[in-house]
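Researcher: Here's a chain I'd like modeled. Treat it as a single chain, no partners, no ligands.
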Amino acid sequence: MTLSCTFFPLLGQFNGSTPAGEAASGPLNLSLDDAVTRGLKTNLGLLTRENSSTSARVDRMQLLAEMLPTVTGGISMTEQQINLATFGFHFPGVPSIVGPFHYQDAGAKADIPLYDGRTLNAWRARKESQRAADLSVKDARDLVVQAVASAYLQIIATAARVDATRVQVETAQALYERARDQHRAGTSPAIDELRSQVELKTQQQILLSLENQVAKDKLSLARAIGLPSGQAFEIADKAPYKPLDGLSPSEALQRAYASRADYQSAQSQVKAAELAHRSVSDEWLPTASINSNYDLLGPTLANSHGTFGITGSIKMNIFDGGKRRADMLDASTTLKQRREELANLQGQIDQEVRASLLDLNSAADQVTVAQDNVGLANQTLTQARDRFSAGVTDNIEVVQAQESASNAQQNLISSIYAHNLAKVALARALGATEANLKIFMGGR
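Model: Modeled as a single isolated chain. Structure tokens:
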């Protein structure tokens, strides 16, 4: 029987990383905090979110540049000759070829936007989108902590199963040797020896499978935290069972809505969509701008004169062929989708928090029952071995008692793992995963 705890599936990219460096000659002594710290530096999911945040910042900066004045300057030297006949000028006694002549020009030009409601609201929307992207990075950190902690706890649980199975192998080995000796002494039939040998081989097979699983679990953790290829490590923390003080669903939900970065990011996305909708609705408003220039113009810069020009303009949209209507429909659809996504996320958070609390409470109860069952199973095994040694019964009773003790121990390990995994899920569900996990693993 295997006990399990429901936890939330993570994106595949949070199980990957960008390994760096060379493997050390000796194994690392890796604690949970060390693993989380490494994951937060190299995990692919977090790095991808950080790149998206940078892209959102670039978009905002580009749109801001459209609202700020631009000034350009330049210097030119012109050597020119004109054929007046090209322009239809014919003057008697006047040559049609003018020049060559030359002039020099040094000047600057400024374009100054005065008012553009559409671009202003679009910039505000980009600002909210950037905030949403930054919060998404914070949420990615929570997902990295969840992925790394889950992988770390998986190794602890599998390693505990290996240790428990080794004990069962040793017990099966002792029972087999006793049954063999009794058979040779003529005090028990051959079937007892065969039966105990089958049990020994079964436990050895389980041990080999579990040892292989530990190695694979370590590969998964190394992949998530960016350890160099081939880097050996040992788990430093054992994560024993520590009950967690009660937390009411209403209190947990209040904390989750206040702390969850993905929820705050979704709220910013809604605000961004509202501002984008307002930006489109402002497309009909006129825009105002000033264009100016100042030049030093003359045969040479030393023999030049200043010239300037200032132009104020107002532009308005008279007919756009239905573009604004299409843009409004698109912006409205996006806004509706963002609001629906926020409502869905709110329901998802509610489900995650309540499910985590249910798993936590259930796992705690399972640990209590499993601990009692381990004690009872071990007593049963002791009595069965004594009865077999005394010749009161055959070893069927011993084999059955040994299997019951093995199952009881495995169930205890599974229930402790489920309890710790529920803590990870609850820490993620509440937000601020790294801080909450440190508190929860201490039983507070």
